[in-house]
Write the structure tokens for this entry.
Amino acid sequence: MKKVLIIEKIHESGIELLKARKDFTYEVVEKLDINFLKKKIKDCDAITLKLSKLNKELIEAAPKLKIISRFGVGYNNVDLVSAKKKSITLAITAGVLDASVAEHVFFMMLSISRGVNKYDKFVRDGNFSERYNLDLTKELWKQKILIAGFGRVGKNLIKKCKGFEMNVFVYDPYVNEKIINKFGGKNILNFSEAIKDMDYVSLHMPFTKETENMINLKILSSMKKNSIMINTSRGEIINESDLNTALNKNMILGAGLDVFAKEPPDLNNPLLKNKKVFLSPHSATFTEQCTSRMAETTVQNIIDFFDGKLDKSMIVKL
Ligand SMILES: NC(=O)c1ccc[n+]([C@@H]2O[C@H](COP(=O)([O-])OP(=O)(O)OC[C@H]3O[C@@H](n4cnc5c(N)ncnc54)[C@H](O)[C@@H]3O)[C@@H](O)[C@H]2O)c1
């Protein structure tokens, strides 16, 4: 009998897969206190993990642990060195959330470009007939977008951009130009030069030493004044204080942020008060359909692992 510890509740459709198997038991825990988790993880063969931290102390407290199954594709919250040392498999829900994140990028681009907050309030406040005095909004048609990071989400996003007839540029030094061209994108070699000419920039790379603070004041000050920055990847890629300055000094028009360097962000983070920022609480995948797909894949990855048929695309090389 294999025991699965579900750290933080997942959609019921994932739990159903475990219920259907006689050779698995499971327990859902919501409390994230380290001492409580250390006790719970002791006899587990597998765990599912959302965004809570799985540090060295916890991994070392789990002598039977064979697989960590992330609900998502990022894994900065896992101590990879300890996982590797103990030959634990790390699985992700690759391929089931890209469309949802790409849709969220469009939700943000359109909301900012079409002034959704402003317009909605305008009508509710009884100012309908003043509409000719409002600032004009922006359309996406024929606009230039730079997709930075051309992995699973970037590749899904480009299809949607093409549907809106946008001009798509791609920056990803690790992806072959032929692949970018096949998807209808123009390959960019020099990020800091190309960004100067973009109307929209959408970030889709992992948080690494190389991408940390990649969007800083120098970059932001070189961008077009009516450009819009969207980040659904990892908060640390943008220097938040620099972004706030750039918005206040009208260096760019607006920003859409689903992710933050610290989550949840401190209430005194100036970006939370900045009207030029459109915010969401790391919820790009929080659709009914996507959370259910992710829960099923998170659990299926564990079942497949023990059945000896876990798909390679789900495994992170440690
Ligand atoms: N907001 C959310 O809920 C949410 C959901 C899914 C993914 N994400 C995040 O979105 C990002 C993309 O996810 P994905 O599944 O497409 O990842 P992925 O691994 O499939 O793709 C990442 C791409 O970034 C590229 N890259 C790496 N370093 C780069 C650099 N310095 N410059 C440009 N490109 C670089 C890689 O070559 C790769 O093609 C990740 O940070 C992930 O954690 C967030």
User: Anything to note?
Assistant: The chain has a mean pLDDT of 97.
